[in-house]
Structures are given as structure tokens and as C-alpha cells.
């Protein structure tokens, strides 16, 4: 969905319908923003991180319990690894953070920052770093297979709930995103939350992530509130 922008107040938006419990955001457009502004790619990445910092207070509007930010995918390792060194900017804050994804390739300095902020907080701002939706499903299947092998569960006991309890988003009270926003205009989810997004509302604004502000976020929430959610059922 490519939205049409209009102006509403926060109060008007909150009264239009049910707020999502979990909002996921794919932070796309940093490189294109840098190119558009005649800047280096690294400067675009830094601008994207700063935008994430600026938005961390605004995203937890009343009713929203969990926000997930897809900042760095497993596939992004094909790009120069120095970009990972920018992410510590995000952890110099007071917000509560949980990090999902593989960690063995993350620089030690960033890994230390992640551990420090996780130990200090227990909330549901989820940062996906070195994350892959396929690998998330695969590791969950392996974990269930191991439990079945060891007699902890029976194969016939495996259902969607058990599967979700093995996914990396099990850290949240609301692991399934109600709304997924991808900035930058691309209309795909790029290996992010593949299991979790089966019935998620997908919103694709054309604005690049470093330019995505509070008004744009509220526009996405208004769009969500106006959607009729059937979860695969005919009404």
C-alpha cells in the first residue's frame, strides 16, 4: 500500500480505531537518501541511525506494546562491514531494548553494548541485527526437533503456538506484528518476520527512512486503524 498523506492530530488518530499492539518497521532508504543529498553512503547509514534514535520516544504511542526495527539483515553482510560500527549510536539511550538475530559476526564493541542495555532493561523495543526470517524459522524447527528427539515433546504436540515459542520474537508479549511499515517505496518484506507476518497489515510509504518523521508514523497508524482485519475469514 502506498499511502496518501494528509494532516490529522494525534488525538484524532487515536480515536479512529484500534491501535496495533506490535508495529514492525523496515528501515529502508538510507543509501538512496545519501545519494540524493550528495553524501557518502556511511553518512546515510548514520542519518538512519539518528532517525531511529529520534523516533524511539514517538513510536510507543498509547496502546502500542512492541516495536521491532529491522536495521541490519543477514544479507547485509555483503556490504562493507564498517556500517555495523554505526549502530552503537542506537544503544546510547534510556529506552528498553531486546536484540534478535545471530550475534557471532557482530563486532565485539557492539556486542558489549547490546548486553549492557539488555541487562538493564526488560521491554519490547526489538532491534533485528544480522536477522533472517528464514533462519529464524529454521532454528525454531531445529529446536523443536531436538526437543522431540529428547522426549520433551511429541511430534503430534507441535502446533503454531509451540512454533511461535521457539521464534526469536518470543521475547515479546505480542510476538506477531499487527502492522509492518517499510519505508522507501519498495513493496516487499525482504526476509523479515516471514512466519510472524502471515496476517500483518503491510504499509509501504515512499518516503526514505532518514526523512520518516512522527507525522509519517501517525499517518501509518491512521491507515492501520481504517483497515478491516479479517485474518483469512470471510465476513
Automatic annotation (TrEMBL):
It comes from Brassica oleracea var. oleracea. Transmembrane segments: none annotated. Keywords: Transferase. This is Alkyl transferase. Belongs to the UPP synthase family. Its EC number is 2.5.1.-. Its cofactor is Mg(2+). GO terms for cellular component: chloroplast stroma. GO terms for molecular function: ditrans,polycis-polyprenyl diphosphate synthase [(2E,6E)-farnesyl diphosphate specific] activity. GO terms for biological process: plastid membrane organization; polyprenol biosynthetic process; response to cold. InterPro entries: UPP_synth-like, UPP_synth-like_sf.
